[in-house]
Structures are given as C-alpha cells and as structure tokens.
Write a structure and sequence with these properties.
Elements: E1 2-8, E2 11-16, E3 21-28, E4 37-40, E5 45-47, E6 59-62, E7 64-66
Antiparallel strand pairs: 1-2, 1-6, 2-3, 3-4, 4-5, 5-7
Protein name: Nitrogen fixation protein NifT
InterPro entries: NifT, NifT/FixU_barrel-like_dom_sf
Organism: Ciceribacter sichuanensis
C-alpha cells in the first residue's frame, strides 16, 4: 500500500491516502526508520522499505501492512 511518511515537530507520521488516514508513528523497529517495522498510534504495523537514513521527507513509499500475527 502507498504510504506517505512525514516529519513534524511532534515526530514522524504516516498518511494512507486510500484510507484517508493519518496517524503518528509511535514505535520503530530500527532507529533510522527505514527497512523495519513501524507501529502507528491506531495499532497498525507497517513494514517500510529499506532506504538511506538521509531520505528527504515527505516521501511516498510502498509499505506492507502486517497482520497481528506477524
């Protein structure tokens, strides 16, 4: 699914256009965000692609939504 990652003074957030949903990222698997799983405030877990740590934001990426079992 397409996800736009943004950064504000409050931290990172993810916007999912198809769902018209924007949620703060509350947990990251990796310190540099990319190439790991992030958790949104609503409980969704997204697997983000590997990208350079200095990737300019905002950026739209292809992320995979994980089920609760993964």
């Amino acid at each position: 699914m397409k996800v736009m990652i943004r950064k504000s003074e409050r931290g990172f957030s993810a916007y999912v256009p198809k769902k018209d949903l924007e949620e703060p990222i509350v947990r990251t698997e990796r310190e540099d965000l990319w190439g790991g799983v992030v958790t949104l405030k609503n409980g969704w877990r997204l697997d983000l692609p590997a990208m350079p740590a200095d990737t300019r934001l905002p950026v739209t990426v292809e992320a995979r939504k994980l089920s609760d079992e993964e």
